[in-house]
C-alpha cells in the first residue's frame, strides 16, 4: 500500500513533496487486474501467515525472480510479520474504494514510476497508464516482478538515486542492465 499512500500524501500536501517515487503500485480503481488466481491469493493474508504456502505460490504471485524461488523467497520469511484477518480485510477495503486517477493530472512534481515487466499483482499496463496521467512522469520498467526492489536493491537504489539527483541515468552514466526508461 506504500504507493497508494505516497500518491494520497502528495496530492494532499503538494508543497511537502518535491519529487515522487512510485514502485510496483497503481492508481486505484479502475485498474487492469492480475489473473483470477492472483486476485484469489490477495484476498487472504495466508501468504503472510503460512511460510510453506508462501514458498509454494511466491513465483506465481510475485513473478520475476521470485519464480526461481531461492534466496528472494526465503528472505520474505524475515520481512513479513503475521497479519490479522481483520487488519488485512480493512487494508483490502481501503484499496478497493480508493483511486487517485481523477487527480493525478494535478501532480506537478517530477515522478519516477518503477514497475516490473512480469508483475502478476500489478500488470505493467497500470504503470504505463499512471505515467500518462502524471504530467512529469518517467516510467522505468525493470525486467523482474512485483518484488524487483527486493531482488536487486543495488540496481533499484541506483535508479532512484539518479532520479532524485536529477540525472537521466544511474551514477555510472549508463542505463541499468535489464531495465528501460520510457517517456509517455
CATH C-level class of the largest domain:
Alpha Beta
**Overall helicity:** 40-55%
What is the strand tally? 4
Question: What class would the helix/strand composition place it in?
Answer: alpha/beta
The CATH homologous superfamily of the largest domain is named Alpha/Beta hydrolase fold, catalytic domain
Q: Please write the string of helix (H) and strand (E) elements.
A: HEHHHHHEHEHHE
Query: What would the average pLDDT be, to the nearest integer?
Result: 87
CATH topology of the largest domain: Rossmann fold
Rg, Å, rounded: 16 Å
End-to-end separation = 24 Å
Quick one: biggest sheet?
4 strands, mixed
How big a fraction of the residues is strand? 5-15%
| Quaternary structure type | single chain
Within the largest sheet, what's the order of strands?
A: 1-2-3-4
Would you identify the CATH architecture of the largest domain? 3-Layer(aba) Sandwich
Number of helical runs? Answer: 9
Instruction: Provide the domain count.
Output: 2
Kindly describe this structure.
With 184 residues, this protein is α/β, with parallel strands linked by helices. The protein has two domains: 2-33 and 99-182, Rossmann fold (3-Layer(aba) Sandwich); 36-96. It has helices at 2-12, 36-42, 46-49, 51-62, 70-79, 85-96, 124-133, 148-151, 153-164; strands at 20-23, 111-116, 137-142, 179-182. It has a four-stranded mixed sheet with strand order 1-2-3-4, sandwiched between helices. The longest helix has 12 residues, at 51-62. The chain is globular and about 45 Å long.
Amino acid at each position: 500500500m506504500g504507493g497508494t499512500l505516497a500518491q494520497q500524501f502528495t496530492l494532499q500536501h503538494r508543497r511537502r513533496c518535491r519529487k515522487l517515487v512510485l514502485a510496483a503500485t497503481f492508481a486505484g480503481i479502475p485498474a487492469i487486474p492480475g489473473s483470477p488466481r492472483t486476485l484469489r491469493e490477495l484476498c487472504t493474508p495466508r501468504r503472510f501467515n503460512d511460510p510453506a504456502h508462501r514458498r509454494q505460490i511466491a513465483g506465481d504471485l510475485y513473478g520475476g525472480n521470485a519464480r526461481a524461488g531461492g534466496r528472494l523467497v526465503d528472505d520474505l520469511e524475515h520481512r513479513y510479520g503475521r497479519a490479522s484477518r481483520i487488519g488485512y480485510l480493512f487494508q483490502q477495503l481501503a484499496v478497493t474504494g480508493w483511486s487517485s486517477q481523477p487527480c493525478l493530472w494535478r501532480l506537478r512534481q517530477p515522478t519516477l514510476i518503477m514497475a516490473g515487466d512480469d508483475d502478476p499483482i500489478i500488470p505493467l499496463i497500470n504503470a504505463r497508464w499512471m505515467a500518462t496521467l502524471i504530467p512529469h512522469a518517467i516510467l522505468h520498467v525493470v525486467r523482474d516482478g512485483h518484488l524487483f526492489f527486493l531482488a536487486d536493491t543495488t540496481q533499484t537504489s541506483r535508479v532512484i538515486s539518479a532520479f532524485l539527483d536529477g540525472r537521466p541515468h544511474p551514477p555510472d552514466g549508463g542505463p541499468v542492465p535489464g531495465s528501460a526508461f520510457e517517456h509517455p
